[in-house]
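Exercise 7 asks you to align residues with tokens for two separate proteins.
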Amino acid sequence: MVQNCSRVQADFTAQTLDLGVDSLDTNELKRLKDFIKKKDPGSFLLAMSEEELLFALGVLKRTKFSTAGQVTVAGLILLGQEAVLRNVLPSAEVIYLHMQNDNEYDKRIDCAKPLLSLLDILTQTIEEYNRIFTLKIGLFDYEIPDFPQAVYQEALLNGLTHRDYSLLSPLSRPVRHRKSWFIFWWSNTGKYLESRAYYS
């Protein structure tokens, strides 16, 4: 059943900040363009100038205060310089914990980087613990990871994109590995008070 709702919650990430294009990381913009080219070589976005691309993606938005455009919260999350992210948007920090048991961890990463860099760092870290098994079928050997990269990357992106960035708490992400399963545990999910995802 769908119910009409008279109150619509504003999108916090669409709000503009008192920041200009100089708060963005040019290396991250190049990373983003390379990402688009890899995923969709024929994308119309690749034919745009950098300025056009930033406006098209909502990284910049023209306001009555700046016709040149101000950076949105989403734009800062996607392309912001690390120092600016830490100063302006402390909730963008991610804490990764690799748990040995329920109470102890053997690896911790505190990271406040733009989205694509953050995804790369977390992927590299998870791959350190991602065992590969070889399945032999006839003359062929197939390498099978404990956790397919596409699966856990989707879980990571869900946690990163659906969190409530208006809150002050970082996104704490304990990852517990025990043989053939692990748990992502988000302490800041925005819509829900607490969320867990199990993979086995």
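Second protein for Exercise 7:
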Amino acid sequence: MPASLQRVEARQISAPGRMASRPNERRVARDLAAARVARALYAALHCSVNETLATAYLGECLDQVQGVVAKAALREIIQDEVRHARIGWAVLASDKLTPADRGTIANTMPVLLDICVSQWLRDVESEFPNELSAGHGCIRHRTINALDR
């Protein structure tokens, strides 16, 4: 065992049941809280917010689609997106998060929503023309812009 680890171990042994130094204890607690919030924010961005937006978008597509096969496909995809969104919301509802964690996450949610909406609009803008033929299940660009409002 390296000498530095032996010194750390000796300090921990000298203070059984707790870390030997209060600053280290606070730093570890702060790092764990930051990691916990980071994981929750990741779930919030990629599941709660993004998958909820995807569900709204696909719901609009379903309202406009005319083909039976396309309708069935959209329903399947929507069910999958709803499951993904629920995972994110379950993470945010977890009792593993402290009230302070929830406050940080709540303050960050508007930013996450802005990021997702701008990404969705940018993706659509770059990949689809402004006008698409009706009935195929992919809503027009201007409709997506209206959903954002």
